[in-house]
Amino acid sequence: MGWKAIHRWLGLTVGAVAVLLGITGALLAVDPVAQAWSAPPAATDLSVAALVERVTRTVPGAEEIRRQPSGAIVVFSFAGDQPQASAVDPADGRVLGAWQPSVLPRWVKVLHRSLLLGDAGRWGAAGTAAAMALLCASALVLLVRRMGGWKRLAARVRGTLAQRIHVVAGRVVIAVLCLTSLTALTMSASTLGWVALDSRAEPEVVSQVPAGTGTPATGLAALEGLAVQDLRTLSFPASADPEDTWKVTTAQGRGWVDRYSGQMLAWQDTTVAQRVDHLARVLHTGEAAWPWAAVLGLAGASVLVFWLSGVVIWWQARWQAPRITGNAPLAQADVLLFVASEGGSTWGFAQTLHDALRQRGHRVHASGLENFCTTTATRQVFVLAATYGEGQAPAHASHALDRIATLPSARVPVTVLGFGDRQFPAFCAYAQALDQALRARGWPSLLPLECIHQQSGQQFARWGAALGQALGEPLALEHVPRLPPTVALALVARQDYAGAAPDQATAVLRFAPPAGGGLGRFAAGDLLGIVPPGSAVPRYYSLASGAEDGFLELCVRQMPGGRCSTHLLGLPVGGSITAFVRHNPGFALPRSRRPVLLVGAGTGVAPLAGFIRRNDRRRPMHLFFGGRDPARDFYFGPEIQGWLADGRLASLQTVFSRVPEGGGYVQDALRRDAERVRGIVAKGAVVRVCGSRAMARGVAEALDAVLAPLQLSVAELKAQERYAEDIF
Q: Are 297 and 29 in contact (CB under 8 A)?
C-alpha cells in the first residue's frame, strides 16, 4: 500500500476520533494559559524553606504544598475535618482564595484521555495517537512529493480550494500534530503500564526523635538549597507521628528531610523515564509553558479544518474517478489507451479520445499506465500522462517507467500526450521522461510529444485533428469537462478595434457581474470560461479586471472559424453570455513591494492591464507591450497612458511590428533595454508574460541572454516562483 493510500484511509477511518481529540485538546489548552496569567510568580531566588516559613504563618494546619505547572502555589490543609485547597502568594504567603483546579468540566479531560470509556478508552486514545503519528508521516511524504522537494515546501500552493486549504493547514501544523501524537504515545506508555517510571522502593527512613522535648527544627537546612521554581510537591510530616519526615519532590528528584534536624536523610534522583514522561506532558499539554499551550490550542482546532478539507478532496477524487464506458477487453483491442492521472481529470480526456476512436470503428481498451503492455491485436498505443509535483509520476504510475524498461520493444507506435501547467518549472516533465524512455527503447511514435496546458480543450482538439490526419481518418475531439455552475453576464460596454483584415477584428468587452452574485471573488489574471451557444466546451479568456473593479473585462480577437470569438465579437450591448470563473493562482502577483516586469503582446496585455489597474500602492511596474500597428491594436492604450501618468505604471516600452521604425517584437525591446531589465530583475522583480506560445518562447530566449551576466535564467526564475506565463 502506497503512502497516499495509507494517508487516505487513516484519515477517513480515524479522522473523526482525531477531530474529537483535537477539539478537546484545544479546549484543555485554555487551562495552562488562564492559570499562567492568574498565578503570581515566585522570585527566582526564593527557597523552599522560606516558602514553608511563610505558609505556616498564614495557613494553619497546612499538610502539603504543591507548585502547579502554571507556577501557582497551592496549599492543602484541613479546617476541622474539612479539606481545603488555597492559592497563596509566594511573596508573603498570603492566602489569595480557594484554588479551583480547572475552568473546564472534568469530563472534557476524561473525554480527551479515554473517550469516556475507562481503560478501554485509554487504549483507543493510544491507538488513535499511533494512527495520527503514521498519518503525519504520510502527510509529510505526500507534502514533499506534491511541492516538488524539501526546498519547495514553502512555495505557493496550487490546486482546488480544498487542496490549498489542506496543504497550507498541513504545512503549518503537521510538526505540532506529529509531536502531540508521539508525546501522547509516550504518556500512554506509563499510563497503561508499558513502562515503569520508577521501580525503586522508598528508602526506610524516619526522623530521629531527640532526647528531651522533641521540638521540630525551626530551620530546614536541606530545603534552603532547593528553589521554589523547581518544586513540585512538599508533604509536611504528620503531627501524630513523631518519626514522620518531610517529603519533597522537585524536577531533580525526591528527598526525605528529618523534621528535627532539618537535614536530608535520603535522596533519589529523577529517573530518565520520569524526565522523558515529564517533558512529554509539557509538550503535549502546554503546562508550564503557556505560549506553547496557545500553539497547541490552535493546532488542535485546526484538526477539524485539516480533516474536513481532506474529506472534500477524497470526495472530489471519488467524483472524478475514472469510469471508462464501452471499454473493450484487452486481448481484443486494436487501440490501447494508458493514463497517468493524479487528480482524475486526465481520464476525462481519455474517455473523449476513447469515444472518438470507437466511432471510427476501433476496439479500444483504456487502463492505468502501471498496466502498460501490448498484445498481438494492438495496432496503436496512446499514453495520456499528467505530471505531479516537480516532474514526478502520479502515485499510481510511479513504477511505470521501470515496467516499460523491462518490456521488449515492439513496432507498435506509442504516442504520448502530456498534461500540465506552465506555471510549474517542470511543465509536463513526466510526459517528456516517458516519451524519451519509449524512444530510447525503440518504440516508434505516430506524432511527436504534445503538451496540453491547463487542460485546454482547444489545444486537445487541435491535437486530435493532427492525430486524425496521421491516422488517415477524421477525428473530432470535443472534450466536455465537468463544468462548475455558470451565470449569465450582460455586456455593458465594448470598444472595437478594426484589424488589417475582417477576420482580425478585436474588441475589449466589459460585462456587469451578476446581480445575485454567483462568481465569488475573482482577480485580474483569472480565467473566464465562456460556453458559446451550441457547444458544451468552454473557451477561456484572461480577465483584465478583478471583483474590486465592479466589472469583468476581456480582450477578444477573432479566431478563424472560432465559435466563441465570433459569438463574443457579434454580441450587442445588452446581450449576455453564459460563463464561470476559473481561478489561476499561478499567474497572480504575490503580495509584496518587489518590482514587476510585465511582457505582453496583442490581446495578451489584458491580464497585465488588470494588474496595473489595481496597483493602488504604486508598486514599481514596468510594461513591455507589443502589437502590429498602434492605430489598430494598441489595446487599453488610453488607460495605459493614464496609469503611466498617475504612477500606477512606472515605465512603458511599446513596439509595433508592422509599421516602419516600429521596433520589431517585445523580445527585441527587451534586448535593447537589457541593462535596465537586468537592474529591475536584480531588485527581485517578478515577471509575468502573456501572449502567444511563439512570443513567450522568444521572450524566454531573450531574457536568458539578458540575464546571463546575473547568473540567472528563466528556468531559475521559475524555480524561485518569480516567472509565470499565460500562453494561448
A: yes
